[in-house]
Design brief:
The chain is of the alpha+beta class and 754 residues long. The chain has helices spanning 4-36, 70-85, 127-139, 228-234, 236-243, 245-264, 275-280, 286-291, 297-314, 321-357, 362-377, 384-397, 429-440, 446-460, 467-470, 472-486, 500-505, 509-522, 528-538, 543-584, 588-616, 620-657, 659-664, 675-703, 711-730; strands at residues 40-44, 89-93, 109-113, 146-151, 156-161, 171-172, 184-185, 191-195, 209-212, 218-219, 273-274, 379-380, 416-418, 421-426.
């Protein structure tokens, strides 16, 4: 049974990358929409398969009645459709002024948001755009378009316009059957609401409405608890986790990594931000590891207390939880880029000073060179840069002046606007905090904190790319790919062997390399006739040469099958990308798939070169360089694929949780493809193909001994291990025999060596 060893790693991989992100996102959105804000969504009744709206059954007019004029019928249908579409949107219980309302029965649900033309979107959105739609549905004021009220006479809930006080001009649910008189009608029931109009008064019934509300619709009277206040105090921490999940996630990540570094005795210089390593040696991953690394208890303590304060203030009020989490990841990248630009400017300034000194002032020149080397090699760790960016956002949004100096409450700064440019606001408080922090703790990174302040102002002014471009599944992989392009001889992939074979053999190396790749790609296992011809050429008694040829044929056949697998996955990724443009429009899901496809194309090309050089027995030093390059590209693909699969799983969770909300936000002239095909397409094709690429990447990294080490292996170790086990089970093309005659030197069984 070959599937048994793969069951455990496949389940582990699916749990880490698909099920866990899906479950967390689904629970968060469900709690935020249906439990915390008690939202009801009203939208069209569409088919979950075709995505087209159901039409009401056409009932023929009674015999003997006069025919209805076509113009009157058309006008009536148009009027009904306009009135019906105006009811689409989100509803929540009416907010009563004064004390909190205790009666939960038969409440009126008021329309809070009605999607307009500017709210419409193409395709099924990413999780970031879905959270923005939910924000609009939650935070909208009284839209005034419709109400959901309880019809006492019919014991049913009805959706209708505010101007209509009669259920006859509304869409109502089926009558509710209850077993007792003191039952609480808490929520409208989910399902189809049929029009109450009759064909005698309105030719052509309007289509039904679909309503999605929290459940259950009815409940028994609650039992009064004597420990209500105590339970509320006990659940305070749980409420904070539910209301601020992104803040808790960022804090948990930083604390967990701090414990990991302390437990493994990791050297700070191996993960820190350092210009010489990031720019000079192209270790771009240090931007991520340096921002989340803490090596002192006071450092992690102060930063996490600041994160708790700033996250409690920003998450849920200025940004929703998903946006706050995505911007935290984006700010890690942006602050690193700004910091590296500042260090580069400082190095260039010192270089001009060195050039100005010349040979006339050797001591001053040596001083500047020492400063330049110190700036180049200075390391920094910690989440402070991102915290300073959030400090800027918090300060600019406060209505009251900010007092940044402890124990000096009279030294406060207000926020000012640039005349004529109201979006450009400025406050000196973060800059004062920077100098105060530098004075109290001289060892802190001045440029790192200043980079956070600059990033915060750019974010508040709207000068950073929008969230769909700054999403982690696009930004991290894209920046890493840009870094590989900046690094010479990595991408685009060109053969590293240029001069040696051309000079010695007088051949064009690119043409020779292409011939090697074509030979591997078109090679097929040799038949008996081919073996016979080769045997005649080398001599029938030369069994050693025959065994060498058979070994070479097996190697070429195995490489050929591996290459076909890579090209098949590449073509599937291209097909998935083409379908994503129709399914998801132009959001971050499409952009992330573009980044993944580019990575995979470069990685396949680099691996082909490695196989060709291995087959042609190129010098070991050149082959080692090719393997290093292939390992760099495959590790970049693996990182981008993991992030993309996680974000895709989170997006699918939003589609499953809030399908009716998305249908009300769709472009009216475009028929959405329906929920079921979208989920199948995204889950089976998109995530499945990327998982196949993930398995192939892990196997190639282990086979070429380029899996890397350090923080990369520590973070991705569960994924690498599970993917490798799956790859060993399904991607091993040929089995090497335990013993084959005449392959290498050996001794016949039972004989003694002389």
């Amino acid at each position: 049974m070959t599937t048994t060893p793969m069951a455990a790693p496949a389940a582990k991989l699916a749990t880490l990358l698909i099920l866990l992100p899906f479950a967390i996102t689904y629970l968060h959105l469900y709690y935020n929409a249906f439990i915390r804000h008690e939202l009801c969504f009203v939208g069209p009744h569409v088919s979950p398969v075709s995505g087209r709206e159901y039409s009401p059954p056409t009932t023929p007019l009674l015999a003997g009645t006069a025919a209805v004029d076509e113009g009157v019928a058309s006008t009536s249908l148009s009027t009904n459709e306009d009135a019906r579409s105006s009811l689409f949107g989100s509803y929540s219980p009416s907010r009563t002024k004064g004390k909190k309302r205790k009666d939960l029965s038969k409440r009126t649900f008021v329309q809070r948001h009605s999607p307009s033309g500017g709210d419409s979107s193409w395709g099924w959105p990413s999780v970031t755009r879905a959270s923005a739609m939910l924000d609009k549905s939650i935070g909208g004021q009284d839209a005034g378009g419709g109400r959901i009220i309880f019809d006492e006479d019919g014991k049913r809930w009805c959706v209708g316009p505010v101007t209509s006080s009669s259920p006859s001009a509304a869409w109502c649910s089926t009558p509710l059957s209850v077993s007792s008189d003191d039952v609480i009608y808490k929520y409208p029931p989910s399902g189809l609401y049929q029009s109450t109009q009759s064909q005698s008064t309105s030719p052509g019934l309007p289509p039904p409405l679909r309503v999605s509300c929290p459940g259950p619709a009815t409940s028994e009277p609650p039992v009064q608890s004597k420990h209500k206040g105590q339970n509320g105090r006990q659940n305070k921490n749980l409420q904070f986790v539910l209301l601020k999940p992104s803040t808790c996630a960022v804090m948990l990540l930083n604390v967990a990594l701090a414990f990991h570094y302390w437990n493994r005795r990791v050297d700070p210089s191996s993960v820190s931000k350092q210009y010489a390593r990031i720019v000079g040696e192209h270790e771009w991953w240090r931007g991520l590891t340096g921002a989340t690394a803490h090596f002192e208890p006071l450092h992690i303590g102060f930063n996490m207390m600041s994160m708790n304060t700033l996250g409690s203030e920003i998450e849920g009020s200025l940004l929703n939880s998903v946006e706050f989490l995505m911007w935290n990841g984006a700010l890690v990248v942006y602050t690193t880029m700004i910091m590296m630009a500042m260090v580069y400017a400082r190095i260039r300034y010192l270089q001009r000073k060195i050039d100005a000194c010349g040979n006339a002032q050797p001591q001053l020149q040596a001083t500047y060179e020492e400063k330049q080397e110190k700036v180049r090699d200075t390391s920094s760790v910690g989440y402070s840069a991102v915290l300073f960016a959030w400090m800027v956002i918090s300060t600019m949004e406060r209505k009251q002046p900010t007092c940044p100096i402890p124990f000096l409450n009279d030294v406060c700064f207000s926020t000012y606007e640039v005349p004529g440019l109201p979006f450009l606001r400025f406050n000196l408080s973060p800059i004062v905090s920077l100098f105060v922090c530098q004075f109290i703790m001289p060892r802190v990174s001045f440029m790192g904190h200043l980079a956070g302040i600059v990033a915060g102002f750019l974010l508040h002014w709207g000068l950073l790319p929008p969230l769909e471009l700054s999403s982690v599944n696009v930004l991290i992989g894209g920046v890493f790919l840009l870094g590989l392009w900046r690094r010479r001889r990595v991408v685009p992939v060109e053969p590293l062997l240029v001069a040696s074979m051309d000079e010695e053999g007088g051949r064009d190396h690119n043409a020779y390399l292409q011939s090697l790749i074509e030979e591997i790609y078109t090679h097929q296992s040799a038949s008996e006739a081919t073996y016979n011809r080769r045997n005649a050429a080398v001599g029938s008694d030369d069994q050693f040469q025959q065994s060498k040829q058979r070994k070479k044929d097996r190697l070429l056949s195995e490489i050929n099958q591996k290459q076909r697998t890579l090209l098949t996955i590449r073509n599937l990724m291209a097909a998935v990308l083409g379908g994503s443009f129709f399914i998801n429009g132009g959001n971050s899901l499409v952009l992330s798939q573009c980044v993944i496809l580019i990575y995979f194309i470069f990685a396949v090309r680099s691996t082909q070169i490695v196989w060709a050089y291995t087959h042609s027995r190129v010098e070991d030093d050149i082959l080692a360089q090719e393997k290093v390059r292939a390992g760099i590209i495959w590790r970049g693909y693996l990182m981008s694929a993991v992030i993309s699969i996680v974000i895709d799983s989170m997006s699918i969770a939003s589609w499953v949780c809030l399908p009716l909300m998305f249908e009300t936000f769709q472009v009216p002239s475009w028929s959405p493809p329906g929920l079921l095909p979208v989920c199948i397409f995204a889950l089976v094709l998109r995530i499945g193909v990327n998982l196949m690429g993930l398995v192939v990447a892990s196997k190639i990294l282990y086979d070429t001994v380029e899996v890397g080490g350090g923080i990369f292996t520590a973070v991705f170790s569960p994924i690498l291990t599970s993917s490798r086990l799956i790859g060993d089970g399904i991607l091993t093309t040929t089995r090497t025999p335990q013993w084959t005659a005449f392959e290498g030197r050996g001794t016949r069984l039972g004989a003694r060596s002389g």
